[in-house]
Amino acid sequence: MSGTPLRLVIFDVDGTLVDSQGDILGAMQLAFASEGLPVPPREAVLGVVGLSLDILMPQLAPEQDAGTQARLVQAYKDAYMTLRADTSRGPSSPFYPGARDALEQLQAQPDTLLGVATGKSRRGLDKLLEAHDLQGMFVTQQVADFHPSKPNPAMLLGALRETGVRAQDAVMVGDTSFDMEMAASAGICGIAVDWGYHPASRLGAARHKLARFEDLAPLLDTIWTE
Question: Which listed residue (12, 169, 175, 179) is catalytic?
Answer without folding.
Answer: 12
